[in-house]
Amino acid sequence: MALIELLNERAIKVPLMARDKNGVIRELVDVLAAAYGLDNAENVFLSVLDREAQGSTGLSDGIAVPHGKTDAVPNILLAVGTAPDGVQFDAIDGQPSRLFFLMVAPPEKTGPHIAALAEIARLSRQSALCSALASAKSASEIMALMKGD
Predict the structure, then answer these.
(1) Torsion of Cα atoms, 55 then 4 then 7 then 82, to 10°
(2) Nearest of 3, 1, 21, 146 to residue 78 by alpha carbon
(3) Given pLDDT bands bounded at 50, 70 and 90, which one contains residue 1?
(4) Would you tell me how many other CB atoms lie within 10 Å of the CB of residue 137?
(5) Predicted pLDDT of residue 129
């Protein structure tokens, strides 16, 4: 599954207003809920917090991938957000995160969930693209960058 297939321009927030880890997660869950008409955003939020409690999903180089599994979603959903000034996310390199990929999936979608996480990990190694995504000024710019336009 290509990551772009999971991306919906309505589920992209540029820039995020939140200035802390839980705030970023809450804001991205709210964006996801609004984009997909989710009835139980609180369950989605709690599933991501539960996963985060097992270990931070802050990668290196300013990227974080908060994610979780919950029956509150019908399939894998992705929200993307940027924080140009960075947010402390307990990243493995200790640096603030500027680019966020929040993903949630139903419990039975383990294989596709792992495949999507692997694709985000591959994307995270493309530093020029990630820098451009983090500096994007709009959701449409993020969509164009992800499509390779």
Answers:
(1) 60
(2) 3
(3) low
(4) 11
(5) 95
Q: Which fold has domain 3-147?
A: Mannitol-specific EII; Chain A (3.40.930)
Six token digits for residue 23: 């705030």
Q: Are 14 and 81 in contact (CB under 8 A)?
A: yes
Q: What is the mean pLDDT of residues 53-73?
A: 95
Contact indicator for 66, 58 with CB cutoff of 8 Å: no
Phi/psi-derived region of residue 62, left when phi > 0, alpha when psi is between -120 and 50, beta in every other case: left
pLDDT in the model for residue 8: 95
Contact of 26 with 62, CB cutoff 8 Å: no
Distance (Å, whole) CA 143 – CA 83:
17
Write out the two tokens for 142: 């993020």
State the pLDDT at residue 146: 94
0.70 cut: is pTM over it?
yes
Domain ranges of the chain: 3-147
The CA-CA-CA angle for residues 30, 102, 146, to 5°, reads: 110
Name the phi and psi angles at 98, rounded to 5: -120, -20
